[in-house]
Write a structure and sequence with these properties.
Jelly Rolls, 8% helix, 7-stranded antiparallel sheet
Length: 252
């Protein structure tokens, strides 16, 4: 596989520093709640169908955070960037929204709840897989008139159940000290995904995302929640000076 070419996307009050063998993704302390992001990825200027990764692929790296339960989210892995809009932090291609496909380690503060299936963890440290059909953007747009239902709790609960029919998901909560260095590994095959932490397999899922996917490493101060009770919440959080360090990144 060709060497990774990672692009930087950095908002105000955020930065990416070089460390030995990798990077430190930083968010600066701020009294306001403006969105802050430090991200490395390899797909920013590509159309979604040109994303570079297909199975089989193994992604491994070491990571640690400045504290447990950082406000917002952070993580690393493979996804299809389903939201499809540019936040203005670096050059990006314009892409229409899509259904989510991902295999990643995801760390989400308690304000988040990002599981569509009630038996799966919605926040904390999670190894997670999403698989969704490639639904044409025009059909997704056809359903946009349903979005006002999110403001009505019974309507939001109904939409969540409907979304769960299309978005298949698997995941497992991780019990670990995020401030210590850990070795993380994702192996994506056509028939499933396996996750290892410190060389121990913690999840072997029979679910495999639809290809192709891009590699992303990030930290931000955003939260989003769509819990079983239908109380939809989203926004940004105040943060202290905080960071995530990532090193020894390899793909093969």
């Amino acid at each position: 596989m060709a060497p990774l070419q990672l692009e930087r996307r950095v908002s105000a009050s955020a930065r990416i520093d070089e460390i030995e063998g990798g990077w430190r993704l930083n968010l600066e302390a701020s009294g306001d709640q403006t969105y802050r992001l430090a991200q490395l990825d390899d797909y920013g200027t590509l159309s979604r169908r040109a994303f570079p990764h297909k199975p089989p692929i193994r992604v491994s790296l070491k990571a640690r955070a400045s504290q447990n339960n950082l406000p917002g989210t952070w993580g690393f892995g493979l996804w299809n960037d389903p939201f499809g809009f540019s936040l203005g932090f670096g050059a990006t291609a314009k892409r229409l929204p899509a259904m989510p496909n991902a295999a990643w380690f995801f760390f989400a503060s308690p304000e988040n709840y990002l599981a569509f299936h009630d038996e799966l963890p919605g926040n904390g440290a999670i190894a997670s897989v999403y698989r969704s059909p490639h639904i044409p953007a025009a059909l997704i747009a056809f359903n946009l008139p349903l979005l006002p239902l999110l403001a009505w709790r019974p309507g939001a609960k109904w939409l969540r159940r409907r979304a769960a029919q299309f978005i298949r998901q698997d995941g497992k909560a991780l019990e670990l000290d995020q401030t210590n260095w850990h070795q993380y590994e994702i192996t994506w095959e056509t028939d499933g995904v396996s996750f290892l932490v410190d060389k121990l397999e913690i999840l072997k899922s029979k679910l495999s995302p639809l290809l192709p996917l891009g590699l992303v490493l990030w930290i931000d101060n955003q939260y989003a929640a769509w819990p079983p009770n239908g109380q939809v919440r989203y926004g940004t959080l105040s943060t202290p000076d905080c960071w995530v360090e990532i090193k020894d990144l390899q793909t093969d």
